[in-house]
Amino acid sequence: MRKNSNYTPPPKMTRLKVGEAAQLMDFLLAKMGGMSRSSVKSLLGHRQVTVNEKVVTQFDYMLKPADSVVINSTRGNVELVHPKLRIIFEDSDLIVVEKKEGLLTVTTGRESETTAFLILKNYVKKSSTRNKIYTVHRLDRETSGVILFAKHSDAQHILRDNWHEIVTKRVYVAVVEGKVEKESDRIVSWLTENEISLKISSSRTDNGGKEAITNYRVIKSNDEFSLLEIELETGRKNQIRVHMESIGHPIVGDRKYGSTTTIGRLALHARVLEFYHPMTSEPLHFETPVPREFLKVFRNQVEKK
User: Fold this and answer.
1) How many angstroms separate the Cα of 212 from the Cα of each of 204, 215, 231, 252?
2) Residues 6+ positions from 177 with CB-CB distance below 8 Å
3) With 0-12 CB in 10 A as exposed, 13-18 as middle and 19+ as buried, what is 275?
4) Does the annotation count 140 as an active-site position?
5) Using one digit for the tens of pLDDT, what is the confidence trace for 202-222?
6) Of 140, 154, 206, 223, which residue is the catalytic one?
7) How far apart are CA 278 and CA 282, in angstroms?
8) How much is the pTM?
9) b/e string for 53-76 if b means 16 or more Cβ within 10 A?
């Protein structure tokens, strides 16, 4: 039997009655059959929970005896579908996404093209025109991977003002040219940017630039390429790209910083982001797979430029 393409199934609704006073988060965790805190926050962030027919997004909302709680397990039309951006996690305070290469995080002021910020801004406004998006950090246009955005200014300020205390791990993977001889190393240098070329240079001695610290370890390698896991202690502009060039192993596809090979993209991916939730202090960990094209260079010859 052929399905009607215009048919929309009814929403899945769970109706609950409150027996005694409790915080909404505790109530839902007790009633929703082992659901995790992250999943409950996602329901709240997507405005899928109502109390007495009013949408509630605060996890610490206090319920009273006889309150009526309804959970709509169907998000309806409020979904993000975009080839360059995928939501990994969302609650009432944060959105964590995976960005594809080729997409700007935010506008640089010179372009009028689509950015991750603009995509998310339009997405949250589908639920309410009052909703907003706030940037916390960014990735280069050609770098893919995990990015964190805030949904209100309080979360943004807490994250930005306490970034080094709140963020416990930032791990990238990269394919670099050549066989890296040291299995692991810690690179410390000072970075300065040329105001005309916008290219960043690295100095092993303090020249008044910004101190940058990068740790790496070799995951696999052959005579031509090495796959590295890279963990940042600082987050300077182009830091990984500059540091890889400085040790004689530029990132594949990074023509700005010395690469002569390509796989059709910059071979740099923000794989892991781990941090404490700015409002609840709950530890959160997000991890994405190594891009397939990064692994192909160990099987196929890449094009020389």
Assistant:
1) 10, 10, 12, 21
2) 224, 225, 249, 250, 251, 252, 259, 260, 261
3) buried
4) yes
5) 999 999 999 999 999 999 999
6) 140
7) 8
8) 0.75
9) eeebbebebebeeebebbbbeeee
